[in-house]
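S.,

Sequence below, as promised.
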Amino acid sequence: MEKFVVTGEVQLCGKIRVGGAKNAALPIMAATLLCSGVSVIHDVPYLSDIKAMQGIMTLLGAEIKREGRTLIIDSSNVHRVEVPEQLMREMRASVFLMGPLLGRFHKVRLSYPGGCAIGHRPIDLHLKALEKIGARIKEKFGFIDAEADSLIGSEIYLDFPSVGATENAIMAAVLAKGVTIICNAAREPEIFDLQTFLNKMGAKITGAGSDTIRIEGVERLVAVEHTIICDRIQAGTYLIAGAITRGDVVVENIVPEYLVSVIDKLEGIGSVIQVGENFIRVRSKELRGVDIKTLPHPGFPTDLQAPILSLLTMAKGTSIITETIFENRFKHVDELMRMGAQIKVEGRTAIIRGVPKLTGTKVTAPDLRAGGALVLAALAAEGTTEIEQIYHIDRGYENFEEHLQSLGAHIIRLNS
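The prediction came back faster than expected:
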């Protein structure tokens, strides 16, 4: 087991370039299974979740080679349609394999996915969407079997704009007969990137980025080359890191419109934001409290709720954060309170009373984004903080300590 050791009260300054988005790379990796051929995917981050997906796809018959930040995926020999249970439990994103395998082979078997324990994340929306286009779903002994004689286009209404359900429905529908319409679809940028990739392959999809997506089924797809979009969650985390340390940080290789809601809240907190064509600069001195509610895109992202909560622990006044996406995403609060934060949680709401400073201590990362939030708190805290179970952080933050070191942070990785 490894841990981070952080010595705080250092202003972060400098430039940092974010790479490809994990949340775009994982479904696009899965989508390569829809055809037989060699796909080339550029700017794929080095993350444990990506490595886990590679392992699953290899067991299904894909041949995958990494050259730097590029994955070369040969799906010609994919023949298995059952995802091993143990690998499913390691990573929730493995559920993305359901749509492509059902679309290509009309059959798939998997168990319920794992991942961070941030709340109840049922896949019933995925299953209902697949049933709408002709899949027969059977759930028994913890396994899900989906089969279809043929997939037929239909209208799918999602009760909630789930990103995963939207992406799975798209991937299953691209090879279905006729037209599929997804209503109340999620609008995240990663879905638009999936649409771009699939359309390169020969799919006919329009509407990604809006709440209505139209898919006209095609007979076959071909392997293509594609570059993953930038990681808006990593970018937002580094902007918040600059703000919490009262520093001056420029995040490059970012599409600013992906982070409009985050920019708005950082300005409300008291940061000075400069926006360029492909960069965002944050400068902060005094911080003040704001109220935040997480919402589906383009609202404030739930994946940045934990990092910005760390920031608000040191902002003047009282702040209120309402988490509307996941009911168990305040697991970092107890750890922040060990550092001196004053936070009261009532259901899905956290009330934060700002304190002049946090103090370093030993804390544990309970999940991916909460782990990132604890690192940010440690950067601003007095003294030294040890953060354990950082394998959670490695699932979504690429070379986290190295990037922070490049901005002047005193952070090292050690064996526990």
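The radius of gyration is 21 Å.

Coffee later?
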